[in-house]
Amino acid sequence: MNNWTEEVDKLLHVAHYCTTLQMNRKFAYNLVDRSLRAASDVLSAQCTNVVNNTASVIQWTTQWSEKLSLSMIVLKVNLLKGEQVNPQLIDKLLNGEILGENVHSL
Fold first, then answer.
1. Element (H, E) at 38
2. Contact 85, 93 (CB under 8 A)
3. What's the Cα-to-Cα distance from 23 to each of 13, 29, 32, rounded to whole Å?
């Protein structure tokens, strides 16, 4: 596993962990949101050069299909509702094991 994939895994685990904490919901939502946005940015760019701003994302990212984008939104909503989402499910989704399309080949 190279550096950017390790960073994505860490960020997804942070998002998942934040849903298990007994803390104010608005702070938990903020942490989940920022973690998933950062994971999405790094994953889309397939490097850690990307930073969390629009210009950087446009410069470094690959394009996601509409199906993949909607699936990630559904996972985010489920996390924000407090549902448990297995981080491996997100990995399988992004690697094309669920939708049949690999984010890295788009």
1. helix 25-45
2. no
3. 17, 10, 12
